[in-house]
Design goal:
With 308 residues, the chain is of the alpha/beta class. Strands 1-2-3-4-6-8-9-12 form an eight-stranded parallel β-barrel, surrounded by four helices. It is built from ten helices and twelve strands. The protein has one domain: TIM Barrel (Alpha-Beta Barrel). It is globular, with a radius of gyration of 19 Å.
């Protein structure tokens, strides 16, 4: 993995750092070599916020964090201009799994995610609510809330938030409607620990009409009415390879998918989202030039009044 931006990237780094008081923009960073190394990568391309895994994203368990792991992370963070940091839970977790063994492992894994993020002092853990696997949405919602209540009871007093992410609705996934997340919130006992992450690709794939100004306003109004904008603490900024309402989750680089410029222009100029971290989740090569290009694209939309 390369840590230094190319010469062509240096102006972008300076521009982003100069804009740090205006907008929180970053990407999901690799933790190869330790979670603390993500700061070095993020700083190299000008991130002012970022997302990471705190362990291997395709494994249930991980070695417990050592005092050295925690100190390395906090030292790197203190010397970086990246804040806040959110983590993303491993993909294996299904908080409404029908199989009891999978459900038990999911609950234990998510509790471990919270413990790791709490030790690092991260804002929260982004997690997909779960897939009901044929049990139906009402049953799935009930089981997700039950899982969260058990996990929260086992982690009393934690400041790290549980951040439920909107989904595309692929398969039997729950969370593609704001009402799903509201129903979970209403069933959770420690509701102050719940926050939300919206994903632009997922909203689009789920059928929210964010490609027009009117549709954007309707969607944000619905988001605020049902969930409350004060609970939205992160935005995943991704274009979509699949069409609107497809309920298929396939991320694309900004401006290269089917969403058009409008939703990204509206997001970048919407004061209601000005202090909410905006994080890319698109594929990248070792030099991370794709992240730089995506952030340049988004920053170039600030102040724009119409789609070019």
């Amino acid at each position: 993995m390369m840590f230094c931006p190319s010469i062509a990237c240096i102006p972008m780094v300076s521009y982003l750092q100069g804009m740090s008081n205006r907008i929180l923009l970053g990407s999901h960073m690799s933790i190869t070599g330790g979670v603390h190394t993500a700061f070095r990568r993020g700083m190299a391309i000008g991130c002012t916020t970022m997302q990471v895994f705190t362990k291997n994203s395709n494994k249930w368990e991980a070695k417990p964090l050592s005092a050295e792991n925690i100190e390395n992370y906090k030292s790197a963070g203190a010397n970086a201009t990246i804040d806040p940091v959110v983590s993303h839970a491993v993909y294996l977790i299904n908080l409404c799994a029908l199989n009891q063994a999978v459900l038990n492992r999911s609950r234990a894994a998510f509790e471990d995610e919270l413990r790791r993020s709490e030790a690092f002092g991260m804002l929260g853990v982004v997690v997909h609510p779960g897939a009901h696997m044929g049990a139906g949405e009402p049953a799935g919602i009930m089981r997700i809330a039950e899982s969260l209540n058990l996990v929260h009871a086992g982690t009393p007093g934690f400041r790290t938030l549980t951040i439920l992410e909107t989904t595309a609705g692929q398969g039997s996934s729950i969370g593609y409607r704001f009402e799903h997340l509201r129903a979970i919130l209403d069933l959770v006992e420690y509701s102050e620990r719940i926050a939300f992450c919206i994903d632009t690709c997922h909203l689009f794939a789920a059928g929210y009409p964010i490609r027009t100004e009117e549709g954007w306003e309707d969607t944000v109004h619905e988001l605020d009415t049902i969930l409350g904008l004060d609970r939205v603490v992160a935005v995943h900024v991704n274009d979509s390879k699949k069409e609107a309402g497809s309920r298929v989750d396939r991320h694309e680089h900004i401006g290269k998918g089917l969403m058009g410029t409008t939703p990204f222009r509206l997001l970048m100029n919407d004061l209601r989202f000005s202090r909410i971290p905006k994080i890319l989740e698109t594929e990248k090569s070792d030099d991370m030039h794709e992240d730089v290009e995506n952030m340049e694209y988004l920053l170039g939309l600030i102040g724009s009044q119409r789609e070019g």
